[in-house]
């Protein structure tokens, strides 16, 4: 999705993330990596109707089965 439609991917990330991400360099046994921290806006993935909350229905283009 990121490569095919960067603008749509950016919109999706802005909707899901509740603010900026913080990237911290760390050392692991496998080498240098980054710890990525941020806030996820749960209201972006949960729809509320009246007093009931439900997950927003979504799937990948290939579905849930291995490609």
Structural features, described:
This protein has 67 residues and is α+β, with helices and mostly antiparallel strands. The two termini are 16 Å apart. It has one helix spanning 6-16; strands at 22-28, 31-37, 46-49, 52-55. It has a two-stranded antiparallel sheet. A two-stranded antiparallel sheet has the order 3-4. The mean pLDDT is 76. β3 (46-49) and β4 form a beta hairpin.
Q: State the low-pLDDT regions, or none.
A: none
The biggest beta sheet reads:
2 strands, antiparallel
Tell me the structural class: alpha+beta
Alpha-carbon distance between the two ends:
16 Å
Spatial sequence of strands, sheet with the most strands: 1-2
Mean pLDDT: 76
- Give helix and strand order, one letter per element, not per position: HEEEE
Which secondary structure elements does this structure contain, and how are they paired or packed?
Blueprint: H1 6-16, E1 22-28, E2 31-37, E3 46-49, E4 52-55
Antiparallel strand pairs: 1-2, 3-4
List the keywords:
single chain; 67 residues; alpha+beta; two-stranded antiparallel ribbon; two-stranded antiparallel sheet; 1 helix; 16% helix
How would you sum up this structure in a few lines?
The chain has 67 residues and is an alpha+beta fold.
